[in-house]
Amino acid sequence: MGSSANQSDRIAKITRRLAYGVLFLLVAVFSLKMIFDKDLGFHLRAGQWMIENGQCMRHDVFTYTVSDHPVINLYWLYDLAMYGLYVIAGYPAISTGIMFIVLIVFGLMARRMKSSQLPDAVIIGGLFAAVLIMEGRFNHRPEIFSWLYMSVLLWALDAHVHSSRRTLFLLPIIMLLWVNSHGLYMIGTGIIGAYTLTLWRKKKLNRETALWIGSGFAVIVINPYFIDGVLYPFQLLTRFEPSNTFKNTIIELLSPWSANIQALTNIPTEALYAYYVLTILTVVTSLLRFRKIAWHEWIIFIAFLYLSCTQMRNIPFFVMYSIPLAAQNLRELTVSFSDRLQRFERMAIILLTAAMLVIGIRVATGAYYAADDRALKTGFGLQIPQETESYMVGRSYKGKILNNVNSGNWLNWAVQQPSYIYSFLEVIGETIYKEYIQSTQRGGVQALIRRYQPDFIVYDHTAELNWTIDLAENPDWRLIFWDARTALFVHDSKPSDSLNLSLVAKTYALEAPPTDEAIWSILKTSPPEKIEWWLKGLYASQPNAWPLLSFGNFALAVKQDSIAELAFLKFLRETQASRPVVYRDLGLTYYLKNDLKKAFYCYGRYLEHFPDDKNSAAIFQQISSQLKTH
Question: What is the DSSP code (8-state) at residue 139?
Fold first, then answer.
C-alpha cells in the first residue's frame, strides 16, 4: 500500500515538474520573437549617441523639425543595455535578452503564487492565462524593464509584509534602476505607498522599515534630469484625456473595452476575452472577499484596473497583479470543498500541459500568429526589412528626409540622418504630430513637401496608403527603391533611375496564369476546413506571404493593376484562400480593370467574412447594378 502511494506521489511530482517545464517553454517561445518593432531603432541610436558623446540627451538630436525641443530620456539605461547587447552579439543578443527578462518576470509571478500556498494546477492555469493575454506586448520596448522591476518590487514587499523577511533594502535599488529605465517608475512609488498603508495599519512601520521606504521614494531624484525627470510621468497623464491627440490616433492607447477594438487591431480573440474574463472574475471574487483583502491590495488592484481599462498597453501590469489575486480569491472561496477539487488536480495539470504544448508548437510554426493576421516570427535577430536603408547608406545618399512616424525611429538608427518625425511624441509635440496626421489624408503629403522641401521621402508604405497614391500622381517625385516595408522616393532633380515594379515582381516569381480559366480556378479556391488548417499548424511552418499582399497593395496604389493582380493571386494560392481579406484587394483590382464579373465574385467572397464593411458593400452593390445594365 505504501509502495503504491509512493509511486503515485512520484508520478504526481513528475507531472507537476513537466507542466512547469512546458509552461516556461511556452513563455520562452512566445517571448523569443524576431525584432519587428521599429521603435527599437530609437533606443539603439540613443545608446550609441550616449556612448559617442559621454552624456544623456538634453535636446532632440534626431530630427530637423524639433531640434530645439528639450528631451527627458528616462529610457537611457534601457538604451545603453540594448546597444550594449547589439555591440556584443548583434540583434540575436537583443532577442535573447528580452526572452530572459520575460522568463524572470513569469518566474517571480510563480514564486509569489507559490508563497501563497496555491495549488499547482491553479498556479499553472493562472500563468497560462497570463502568457496568452500578455504575449502581444512581448516586444523590444522599455516597458519590459518595468515589468521586471514591478515583479521584484512586489516580491520584496510581499516577503516583508507576510513573512517579515528583511527584503526592503531592495526598494531603493529597484527604484533607482526604474527611474533611469522607464517613465512608468511612478507605478513603483504607488505600489510602495500602498504597502506602506498596510504596514502602518498593522503597526509594523518601525524606524528601519520607514528608512528603507523613504529611501525608495528619495532615490527617484537621482536621474540625469533631477526634478524634471521626476515630474516627467505627469506629462504622460495627458494621454488619458479623451481629447488628447495621441490617445485618439495611437491604437495601443485605446481602451480594450472600445466597441470596435477588434476591428481596429489584430489582438487575438482569445487574449481579449481572457482579459475580460480575468477582469470580471477578479472584481467579483474580490468583492466577495471584501473585508479579507488588505488595503494595499485594493489600492493597487483598483489602480491597475483603471489603467488597463483606459489603455491597452497597460493590460500586462493589470494581469501581473490580478492573476495572483484572483487565484488567492478562488482558493479562499472554495476552501469548503477543496478536498473534492484536489482529486481532479492531476487531471487538470495534464490537460493544461497538453494545451500549452499544442499552443507552443503552433507558435513555433507561425500558425498561432497567422490565425490573427500577425506577421510575427519566433526566432533570433531582425525581421524588419532594411533593404531600403541599406540602399541609401550604400549609395551615400545625403539630404533632407521626409518620413512617416513608423519609419523615423529605424531611419535614425539605420541611416543616421535627421528625420522629420519619430515616435518619441513627448519630444515631437502635438503641433508637428497634428501636421503629420493631416498628411495621412489624400493630398496631405503635398503640404509637407511644400513646407519642408525634402530631397528624399522614405516611409512605411504598409501604413500610409495615401502617401503612395499622392506620390504616384506627383510628377516631381520618382520611386527608386522598394522593400516589403519601406518605399524610397527621390525628387526629380536628383540623378537616379526610376524603379520598374516589374523587376520587383520577378523577385517574388510572379507569373501570369496562362488562361482566364486558370485565373478563375485560383479565385474559386476553397479554403481548407478550419480544423484541417488548425492541425496543419502543428507540423508545418506557415508561409510568410504577407510581403506579397504589401507589394500588391503598393502596385495597386501606383496604378500597376496587372502586377497587383499577380501578387494577390499568388498570395491567394500560398495561403490557400485562408486569408479572405485578399478578396477585397482583388475585387478592387478587377473593378479598376473593368473586369466586373471577377470584381463581383471577389467582393462577394470578401463580404461573406466581413459583412460590416460598408465601403466594400457599397462597391459591391455598384458593381451589381452595372452588371445588370450590361
Answer: S
- What domains lie within the chain, and their CATH numbers? 2-31+72-257+264-370 (no CATH), 387-499 (no CATH), 508-629 (1.25.40.10)
Which tens digit of pLDDT belongs to each residue from 387-403? 999 999 999 999 999 99
Exposure string for 161-184, b = 16+ CB within 10 A, e = fewer: beeeeebbebbbebbbbbbbbbbb
User: What angle, 0 to 180 degrees and rounded to 10, lies between the N-to-C axes of helices 2-31 and 91-115?
Assistant: 140
Cα 483 to Cα 333, 388, 462, 585: the distances in Å are 57, 6, 11, 20
Report the b/e string of 290-319 with b at 16+ CB within 10 A. Answer: eeebbbbbbbbbebbbebbebbbbbbbbbb
Cα–Cα distance between 225 and 505 in angstroms, integer?
Answer: 51
Q: Distance of CA 542 to CAs 131, 297, 485, 507, Å?
A: 22, 44, 20, 20
* Threshold 0.85, pTM exceeds: yes
Spatial distance between the Cα atoms of 50 and 538, rounded to a whole number of angstroms = 45
Give the single-character DSSP code of 38. Answer: T
pLDDT in tens, 475-511: 999 999 999 999 999 998 777 788 999 999 999 999 8
